[in-house]
Amino acid sequence: MTELLLQAQSLECSKNDTVLFRDFGFALNSGEILQVDGANGSGKTSLLRILCGLAQADQGVVKWRGQDIHGYRSEYLQDMVYVAHSNGIKTDLTALENLSLVQALCTKVSDRTLAEALAMVGLLDYAELPAANMSSGQRRRLALARVLVTDACLWVLDEPFTSLDELSKQLVTSMVIKHVKNGGSVILTTHESVDWQDCTMKRIIL
């Protein structure tokens, strides 16, 4: 049975006196993917930041399990993990150290080991390599591995396929599919055409 998790109601967002979106809303259930499409500059990243509680909408409300995320912030942040368009990794640390730091900051951690998370994104052989010495694709996979060491049920991913080759795109796609089939939910932006197999997928256009 699905559960209503995230609701956006009557959202409005402006930037530099330009309205990016107005009276915008959706509902996301457990076991669903929400793909946000739109041209560059349409407000996709702004929307994701609002949904994560990192920015405040000009109007409207975002609710998690029926509660306003700004009044329910601690609980919401335990259930949500966000990977931005920038990788947000520490280049002076190794792959293993980066994930260890993420896990140490998490309230809810996955049952997976750090080695298992690195293996799932094809980086196990690079566990001791400083991120500074990684390719752009490897850094992106390391950033995405953060979702695997948390126990968050909502993944918010901004252009997760950036800098990835075809094999890496398949790895990330498989991660998302497995997550939603286990009852998790994913919100993402992408310019890629992705086969989500038989997952329940909603698409909104800004």
Task: Write up what this structure looks like.
The protein is α/β, with parallel strands linked by helices. The protein has one domain (4-205): P-loop containing nucleotide triphosphate hydrolases (Rossmann fold). 29% of the residues lie in helices and 28% in strands. The protein contains 6 helices and 9 strands; from the N terminus they run E-E-E-H-E-E-H-E-H-H-H-E-H-E-E. The chain has helices spanning 44-51, 73-79, 95-105, 114-120, 136-145, 166-181, and strands at residues 4-15, 18-29, 32-37, 59-64, 67-68, 80-83, 154-158, 185-189, 200-205. The strands form 2 sheets. A 5-stranded parallel beta sheet has the order 6-7-8-3-9, sandwiched between helices. Strand 7 (154-158), helix 6 (166-181) and strand 8 form a beta-alpha-beta unit. It is globular. The two termini are 30 Å apart. The model has no long low-confidence stretch (mean pLDDT 95).
